Amino acid sequence: MGSRNYERSRGGFFVVSMGTRPENVRRAVDSLRAELARITTGVTDTELADAQAYLTGSFPLRFTTYGRLARFWTRSTFYGWPDDYL
Q1: What are the C-alpha distances in Å from 39 to residues 25, 42, 44, 55?
Q2: Is the pTM of this model over 0.85?
Q3: What are 32-54's pLDDT values in tens digits?
Q4: Fewest beta carbons less than 10 Å away: which of 13, 33, 43, 84?
Q5: Contact (Cβ atoms closer than 8 angstroms) between residue 28 and residue 18
Q6: What is the chain written as a DSSP string?
Q7: Close Cβ partners of 75 (under 8 Å, ≥ 6 residues apart)
Q8: HSE-CB for 32 with a 13 A CA cutoff
């Protein structure tokens, strides 16, 4: 299972994907819908702290290659982020 947020200059979209056996499709979709409904009401303080710790720790890894750095600068230019964004 995975999810991704695709940003666009005028909105974007959120994609969730998963794999399951055919006989489990209904249960998997129901579970996914329940989880999406749950997170739209907010997250707990622990979930927020965990997410912040993960993002803080993984942030430097986004710039470990020239390609990743180029993608960041392309995105920052596209969205008009200031030069001191980082």
Answers
A1: 21, 5, 9, 18
A2: no
A3: 999 989 888 888 999 999 999 99
A4: 84
A5: yes
A6: -EEEEEEETTEEEEEEE----GGGHHHHHHHHHHHHHHHHT---HHHHHHHHHHHHHHGGGGGSSHHHHHHHHHHHHHHT--TT--
A7: 7, 81
A8: 15
